[in-house]
Amino acid sequence: MADEGSSATTTGHAPIAGPLASGTTPSLTLARSLNCDSNALLSMPPFDLFVAQLSSDSTEARVDAMKKLSIVGDAMGTKDTIEKLIPYLNDTIAKSEDSDEDDEILLLLAGQLAELVPGLVPGYEAMPLLPTLERLCCIDETVVRDKAVETFNKIVPLLLPGGKYADGMPFGLLRTTAQRLASADWFTAKVSAAGVLPTMYAFWNAHAPRGAAADEVRREFRILFKDLSEDDTPMVRRSAAKNLGRFVEAVAGLTKSADEMIKSGVAQPAVADENKRLVTFEIVPIFQALSADEQDSVRLLAVSCAGSVGCGLAREPSVTADVVLPVVRGGCADLSWRVRHNLSKAFATVTGSLGFVGPKHIARQTEVFKLFSGLLQDSEAEVRAAAVENIARMAQLGGADLFQAHIAPLLPALADDLVMEVRSKLAQTLMDCCDPSICTALTDEIILQEFRPLLENFLNDEFAEVQLHILSKLSRVSHLLGQMDVVVNSILQMARAQNWRVRDAVGRLLPFLAEARGVSFFEDHLLEPWLKIMSDQVADVRAACIAGMPKLLSVCGSEWIMQEILPNYTRMYDESQSYLTRITVLRSFAALAEKDGENALNISDTLMDQIVSLMLRGLTDSVPNVRLIAARGLGLVTISGQCDSGVMKSKIVPALNDLVHQEQDIDCRYQCQLALEAKV
After folding, report:
1. Which are the contacts of 412, defined by CB distance < 8 A and separation ≥ 6?
2. What percent of the chain has pLDDT above 90?
3. How far, CA to CA in Å, does 225 sit from each of 203, 298, 374, 423, 653?
């Protein structure tokens, strides 16, 4: 199984025949690692070649073989993969338990098995993979177990429908697998058991026939998970805490995670009374016990599952106030900063799962926001940074009043935080507060009152990362820039920043400033920075001006573009010493033929004539790259439908046809052909 990148260049060898035929020959390293001559190697069937490599003493050859497992499977076909390849892999893993097989090989195997399903091996025929994955779930190396659990969780939901199994399958196999893993003597299997039980429970919910037998199996799964959560080994309890959220959601019958539901704002799906009872009386005690575990590595994972528990209880305020809120209180006051940190990261999801909505629950809402404000003022910078990321979602959940009462007063101190990461996260979340897809609770008045001084400070921050979080998203408040003079002045100064990413962000923002402050303001204050950015030595910065041309056209109109922009661009083209400048100008002209979002494209005939003239001029350039860009630009002009049919027939089509027949560069010819096809 030679690496494609190391294929031999020696002539005289015939291509590999059979299913693996690719025109390559095995690498010299591979050839030396196998005990056979080169001719036999070239004609070897894919399965035999795979076995030979995997049996080699060369670690490189075995790693290479396992990396190509999915390719071998494709070459063998579904039937041989199931009947020959998978049994061989299972035997290989069984032998590895008595030897020191390289963990890298096992890790690759766990990942490659996921690639086989469902593309090559249909889900309903994937049961033979489960014993192999079960063995991998018991390996000592953590990364191997984690990858095996990930693959197991991917395959199990695909086992049905469509499977033709013997009676009781695959349910019987999954049940016995869970029993073996959860009752193993060594902790590694138990750790994996906690990771696969939620998926098995959800599989039973979706596919098991209703009745006492299925209920008994689900009860058994709950008992197994409870036993794992009470295991003497901290690693097992930690795995139970890590997967508790998924298990709660499975028991409650939820098909989406708590984080997905809270972020998307979808209504809480109904939870059956029986499922709610099971969560309340069987899962909540596990949650409470793990949240109070003596090991902080267990507590930090348990408290972050509070959102799932709240959704599992159908977000009923009367229940969550007694069950979830006390755990949140304890987590916010935990002596371990890691617990507070993990809770901070999930705080918005936890808040949304509590169900404290409306005036009736204002007291509890206020308490939750006070807990959040405590995390924003935590003594550990990591906790503050994690809490800050939730500000936008908390504002949406609590509304403007709670935001101004409990969060806004803390923003100036956070903006002056000595730790750059805190300021960076705050800059990012403030702009998220202005994103309608995330937060709609804050009015323009609140944004101007609370955010304007902070934006001014952030734009003058010593770290470019903080500045970029503001600049890259400032277009979200472009309609307010007319009332932010200091912010606008800071932006103009940053057009000369040393960091090219800052200049790039400024370039992308300038058209929005033209929209906010008017065309005359752009002429007086922004045109010079725009032209400097257009001539920047960094290609990505120049591309910012190219990307802004459609916006500038929609804001300023064709006449203004012809009077103020095109003469400068034409001069730059005429005086250019580098073909890169000419490419930039051509791309800018071509960008005028693209729509600005949903705004209708409206180019005057005179402006279109100038665009076409420059593109035709570019077709005659001595540099192939310039001709290629010009041909691509004519394609955009054609697609736009704004060009007069007479100009198309008399100028554009003849020029492109001539270049197709005369051009020596294959890429240029291809772009010309694409432009001609766009006409059709």
Report:
1. 453, 454
2. 59
3. 16, 15, 34, 41, 71
